[in-house]
């Protein structure tokens, strides 16, 4: 398996080079040259596997023999041994048409751990094998940062710098990142939004001389490893439903911001999983929902919402989708992305728009609707949703009303977003790992956020 860029200017590279390259050197995003097709017989066999066994099978399709199978197995086993639930990503049934896929049983209580425990271990493995340093630069609206730091803190040969928007993440998210005092961790709080943080890191990764000189590596979902690792739980969830007696296609409702998680579902479907609808649930930052309904991809005004990790305007994985939408044609993608840079707008019409609407259903969930959904699910099912999952649940309710079964991806534990939960007078007990964060000192530097300032900070840190 080789990896190519959505913009066509990178010669095909292997798995490890693709992981190390992060953002493609031509400014595009790396994708597999061919999407492996999984037969019905293989799907039947996979149904019996544990989560780590399934992850090993799926990763093997993308890694080829670049990592010996025994080493890959150890990486996978180590990565999922840190999860608190034996099933790693269990599915809970609420009623005949509603299931919750709990992705928050990893060390930082968010779905990011599923991919970042693995990527942290993979970076460590590559660093040791090639005797090279790994300098991670990431942007976060709260969850990726905490999870990536947890994945590599204290690891030999690795340093990590995370940018987050100052005072725009939840208290628990902030504490998870900034109470870490390992020498290989640097937290910068940028005066701005997550989009500012993401733009800065993309600019720095696009400066190939700087990237190569300082060995910059990505942990955001621009890194294809993130997407591949996130496909696994779509398969695993489907198999869990099948074991519970459900047959046929299943829809997934996905709380969406950067379009990474739902793109992983899109990839799982392309690999052969029987996915019915992929439901894209946004909060009031609804650029993607507007795109699906109108074909216009254009940032709106930033809204601070109860689901701050999805307060994202420019979705970094959108380019990967455009690549497939336009028949894997890098010229069209390059042209569309140039147009977006110039006009902050992409318009999709005709058959392409029909295809978008066949690929996704989309709903934008307002702030009050998000809180209402938390209250309703708590009262009706005794199940406490975090506000991001609540957006997914609100969207899935529309499907349930049409008699369809949906699995809602639960992307975070409610304890991470108590600010929203308290607004509905629901009290929760924090898990011990979260409670103890409140007694720790914080280590963070607030920065203005010009590219130059961040570059200087990185040069002194690395
Ligand atoms: C809790 C939570 N839910 C949902 C999302 C949206 O996922 P994605 O950015 O992959 O669309 C994020 C951020 O990535 C998140 O942190
Ligand atoms: N919501 C994310 C934003 C970054 O997304 P990523 O999937 O590209 O890492 C966060 O919590 O940081």
Automatic annotation (TrEMBL):
E.C. numbers: 4.2.3.1
Transmembrane regions: none
Catalysed reaction equations from the record: O-phospho-L-homoserine + H2O = L-threonine + phosphate
Pfam families: PALP, Thr_synth_N
GO-annotated molecular function: pyridoxal phosphate binding; threonine synthase activity
One GO term of the biological process aspect: threonine biosynthetic process
InterPro entries hit by this protein: Ser/Thr_deHydtase_PyrdxlP-BS, Thr_synth_N, Thr_synth_N_sf, Thr_synthase-like, Threonine_Synthase, TrpB-like_PALP, TrpB-like_PALP_sf
Listed CDD domains: Thr-synth_2
Residue stretches making up the Tryptophan synthase beta chain-like PALP domain: 99-404
Cofactor: pyridoxal 5'-phosphate
PROSITE patterns the record matches: DEHYDRATASE_SER_THR
Residue(s) carrying N6-(pyridoxal phosphate)lysine: 112
Domain Threonine synthase N-terminal intervals: 2-80
Keyword Lyase assigned: yes
Keywords assigned by UniProt, alphabetized: Amino-acid biosynthesis, Lyase, Pyridoxal phosphate, Threonine biosynthesis
PANTHER family from the UniProt entry: THREONINE SYNTHASE FAMILY MEMBER, THREONINE SYNTHASE-LIKE 2
Functional summary from the UniProt entry: Catalyzes the gamma-elimination of phosphate from L-phosphohomoserine and the beta-addition of water to produce L-threonine.
Protein family per UniProt: Belongs to the threonine synthase family.
Name of this protein: Threonine synthase
Species in which this protein is naturally found: Paenibacillus thalictri
């Amino acid at each position: 398996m080789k990896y190519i860029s959505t913009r066509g200017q990178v010669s095909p590279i292997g798995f490890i080079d693709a992981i190390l390259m992060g953002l493609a050197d031509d400014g595009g995003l790396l994708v597999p040259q061919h999407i492996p097709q999984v037969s019905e017989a293989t799907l039947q066999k996979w149904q019996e596997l544990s989560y780590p066994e399934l992850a090993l099978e799926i990763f093997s399709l993308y890694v080829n023999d670049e990592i010996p199978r025994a080493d890959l197995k150890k990486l996978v086993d180590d990565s999922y041994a840190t999860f608190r639930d034996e099933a790693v990503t269990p599915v809970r049934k609420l009623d005949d048409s509603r299931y919750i896929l709990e992705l928050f049983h990893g060390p930082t209580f968010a779905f990011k751990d599923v991919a970042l425990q693995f990527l942290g271990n993979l970076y460590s493995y590559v660093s040791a094998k090639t005797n090279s340093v790994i300098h991670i630069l990431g942007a976060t609206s709260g969850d990726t940062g905490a999870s990536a730091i947890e994945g590599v803190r204290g690891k030999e040969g690795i340093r990590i710098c995370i940018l987050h928007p100052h005072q725009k993440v939840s208290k628990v998210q902030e504490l998870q990142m900034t109470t870490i005092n390992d020498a290989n961790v640097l937290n910068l709080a940028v005066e701005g939004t997550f989009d500012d943080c993401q733009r800065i890191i993309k600019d720095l990764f696009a400066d190939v001389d700087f990237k190569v000189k300082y060995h910059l590596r990505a942990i955001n979902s621009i890194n294809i490893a993130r997407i591949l690792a996130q496909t696994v739980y779509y398969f695993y969830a489907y198999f869990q439903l099948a074991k519970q007696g459900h047959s046929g296609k299943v829809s997934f409702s996905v709380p969406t911001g950067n379009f990474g998680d739902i793109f992983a579902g899109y990839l799982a479907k392309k690999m052969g999983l029987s996915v019915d609808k992929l439901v894209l649930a946004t909060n009031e930052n609804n650029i993607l929902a507007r795109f699906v309904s109108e074909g216009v991809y254009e940032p709106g005004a930033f809204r601070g919402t109860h689901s701050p990790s999805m307060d994202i305007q420019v979705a970094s994985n959108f380019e990967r989708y455009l690549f497939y939408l336009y028949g894997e044609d890098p010229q069209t993608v390059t042209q569309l992305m140039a147009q977006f840079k110039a006009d902050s707008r992409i318009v999709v019409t005709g058959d392409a728009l029909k295809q978008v609407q066949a690929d996704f259903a989309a709903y934008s969930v307002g702030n009050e609707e998000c809180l209402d959904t938390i209250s309703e699910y708590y009262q009706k099912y005794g199940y406490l949703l975090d506000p991001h999952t609540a957006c997914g649940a609100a969207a899935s309710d529309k499907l349930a009303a049409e008699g369809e079964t949906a699995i809602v991806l639960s992307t975070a534990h409610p304890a991470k977003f108590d600010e929203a939960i308290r607004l509905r007078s629901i009290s929760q007990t924090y898990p011990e790992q979260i409670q103890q964060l409140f007694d720790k000192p914080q280590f963070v530097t607030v920065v203005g956020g010009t590219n130059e300032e961040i570059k200087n900070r990185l040069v002194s840190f690395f």
